[in-house]
Amino acid sequence: MAIQGRNSQAMVTIKNASVRISRTRQLKVGNFQILPGQHWCVFGGNGAGKTLLARMISGDLLPGLRYVSYGPEFEPASDLINVSFEEQQKLWERDNRHDVSEYMADALDVGTTVDALLTQRAVGSRKETESDLQILRELGIEQIRDSGVRFLSSGQVRKVLLARALLSKQAGRARLLILDEPLEAIDKQSQPQVADLINLWMDQDNSTLALCRSEQNILSGITHMAVMKDLQILRQGPVDEVRNSEEFRQLTQLKMNRRIRIPRSGPLPEKNNSAAPPIQLRGVTALYRDKLVLNNISWKMDRCHNTLIEGPNGCGKSTLLSLIDGENHKAYGQEVYLFGLKRGSGESVWDIKSHFGVVSNEIHTKYIRGRKVLDVVVSGFFDSIGLYDDSGGSQIEIARQWLAQLGIAELTKDSYEEISFGQQKLVLLARAMVKQPDILILDEPCVGLDDHFRSFILRAVDAITQSTSTQIVFVSHTEGEQPDCINQHIRFVPAGTGGYTLVIT
Predict the structure, then answer these.
(1) What is the DSSP letter of 36?
(2) Rounded distance, CA 173 to CA 205, Å?
(3) Of all helices (H) and strands (E), which one includes residue 292?
(4) Is the dihedral of CA 424, 430, 431, 433 positive or negative?
């Protein structure tokens, strides 16, 4: 039985919507409503149209505005709260665009702090209650309130956005919370607390629209469900009715059994044939401002290793990766060795980057808007964010082959920012692999992907290690989410003297 709030008038209504998304695609929604007390799950695979539906409801899909109406007491600007990957991207883009570090004495512009972000919407001028503080404690936010949002991990930013949403809850005021896979990028230790906090939101007054790609991530408080495929709603209604429908069954049983063929690469950077370990760190320490993050860590990755890295949000996983892929200057002066050469031995950043392919949240959020998907993939040959060099016919052909093997060849001419978050992840994997690097760094590569694409990515990684000399560094928060090729396991654990150290098995 669906929960109904005291007010039965719809918060949001969409009628007879037909919105052109690209030359060949249209989002079509015949009739969709959200009432107070209804908690919806919009379920579908990558590219099904879930994010576009959420953007239409939020008023961000401009051509769709004429099809959306709001209840007389519902104000989208104040009563609609968004926790999504796209919202995170907007935050990072805004702070990076306004970065004035080069003009500051300490060369560090913190940008928007966690505390400022919370105050923008959640806390406002009212005094924080004990309940508010408890939410911040449970999400691990109290100790990072002075930190800049753009320096946090993806999981930490999601926790901050969720806290801002939960703190906006107000008795007697119906609000709509849009959640794009709320447990994605959250470390497994924190997922139960996050799910419990979201359930506190799901009462008879407020409403929820949760976008979901995986059946196992459907929240327990969901009352209604809509199933989407090919930019249309196939079925909608009470959650039990829809979960027992043929439309839902077909989506959850969809398998991707296509054989993966690794495309031939064109001219590649000269390989380093040294027998030395590709990566070796000895007693390395890293700080963020005055806070110890990595505490005297050591790690050797031999030629035979494919490595899995796990640890809680904010423990320093991304910092570790940036020390080895050329992005972090704090490697200089420390014992960081790549292919037998100590960092700072005269090599350029581009020399280092030539050995690595990277798929990460940082690259995902940095990527310049206005680029076609094919250009994004070809830029991997040049290790650039954007395509600034003339590409040859062979490079374009290899890029097309990778897109085809990842099942997204039809996106070649689409704009990168107009495809779904999960599809962007696949594009970035193609970008990382076009040059067949010595080491492929995959920082949470399955975030934003539906179940069958997750399975496909893991099989693709195994195929890469079997068919090429590329080694893998794989970061994951999800239990059991790793390719079969993994034979070295790194866990981040708290160090007794502060920060985190590594346990390697």
Answers:
(1) T
(2) 7
(3) strand 291-301
(4) positive
What's the pLDDT at 390? 59
Radius of gyration of the chain (CA): 23
Helix axes 154-167, 130-138, angle to 10 degrees: 160
Distance, in Å, from the CA atom of 265 to the CA atom of 267, rounded to the nearest integer, reads 7
pTM of this prediction? 0.82
State the Cα–Cα distance between residues 278 and 440, nearest whole angstrom. 12
CA distance 252 to 382: 39
- Alpha-carbon distance 30 to 226, whole Å? 12
Q: CA 226, 227, 229 angle in degrees (round to 5)? A: 140
Residues of the chain with CATH 3.40.50.300: 12-88+164-252, 279-504
Supply angle C-alpha 449, 455, 458, rounded to 5. Answer: 100
Superfamily of domain 12-88+164-252: P-loop containing nucleotide triphosphate hydrolases (3.40.50.300)
- Whether the pLDDT of residue 98 is over 70: the answer is no
Name the E strands within 39-131.
39-43, 68-70, 80-83
Confidence of residue 474 (pLDDT cuts 50, 70, 90): very high
Other residues' Cβ atoms within 10 Å of the Cβ of residue 338: 27
| Helix-strand-coil split of the chain, %, nearest 5 | 35, 25, 40
Give the tokens for residue 7.
Answer: 């007010």
Per the prediction, the chain carries an average pLDDT of: 85
State how far the alpha carbon of 171 is from the alpha carbons of 167, 199, 201, 204, 497, in Å: 12, 16, 11, 11, 44
**CA 15 to CA 433: how far, in whole Å?**
43
Token output for 146: 């002075």
Mean pLDDT, residues 391-418: 86
Q: Give the least confident one: 36-40, 306-310, 312-316, 447-451.
A: 447-451
Average pLDDT for 114-134: 74
Residue 255 has pLDDT above 90, yes or no: no
pLDDT recorded at residue 44: 94
Q: How many CB atoms lie within 10 A of CB 384?
A: 14
Sign of CA dihedral 79, 80, 83, 85: negative
Instruction: Print burial letters for 189-216: b (CB count within 10 Å at least 16), e (below 16).
Output: ebbebbbebbeebbeebbbbbbbbbbee
Amino acid (1-letter code) at residue 191: Q
Instruction: Indicate if the pLDDT at residue 125 is higher than 60.
Output: no
Question: Edge-to-edge strand order for the sheet containing 356-359?
Answer: 341-342, 335-338, 279-288, 291-301, 500-504, 488-494, 307-310, 471-475, 439-443, 356-359
Name the CATH superfamily housing domain 279-504.
Answer: P-loop containing nucleotide triphosphate hydrolases (3.40.50.300)
Other C-beta atoms within 10 Å of 60: how many? 15
* Integer Cα distance of 35 and 33 in angstroms: 7
